[in-house]
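Protein Entry — a single chain follows
Next Lines — sequence and tokenised fold
***
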Amino acid sequence: MTVAAEPLARADLAGATRQVLKIGHGIKPDVLLVELEGRAAEPGSPASVVVKDYAPRGPWVTRWLGPWLAAREQRIHRALGPLSAVPNWLGAIDELAFAIEFRPGDPLSRGLRAQRSAEQIEAFLERLDASVAAMHEHGVVHLDLRHRDNVLMDAVGDPVLIDFGAAMHFRCSSFWYRWYRPTVLVYDRRALAKWRERLHPGAPPSRRTLWRRLRSRLRRRRTPPARG
């Protein structure tokens, strides 16, 4: 297949890789920032793409699990194609690697709110809520939005959702989605509550935070004082 209208072959990866964004381990792929030679001058064409590659993993992954995981994540990207918050799928390189749109942004952290106004943060959180709701309407549950590297704020303040390796994808009309929906959506909703709490000054603490604080207090009460 082709990537962004230009051939990108396995043999091209080593020379075209500009940066290793993440070194995989176990069953996780390497994530590479790959430069497409000669594309920067073409209007509307990406100069760089992100490649997820399972080839560096062990033989059990490369022969069996890697092709299945790569195909699975690509199906999710194709299902989420209409969503502006999700990088576009650009094509498969081979059965172990595929390319997606490069969407730079800042990972979420408490430090981010010092760089943006309260109005910008609130607008971002509203767009994030809407993007996650739209993702759910397409039958996809991310399950790992609590990880700070999986939710980005781009240069104009829009959310970018990445890394769907752990996501679940259902047909919206299926029995399984209706049955699982109340159970699995809670993970994404807890993540949204976490980011609202961390980014929005004065936001009420989430139930998860309140429960963690209560457990901490109970643990301190049960711990006997140290004797000198």
Notes: The chain has two domains: 10-101, 106-220.
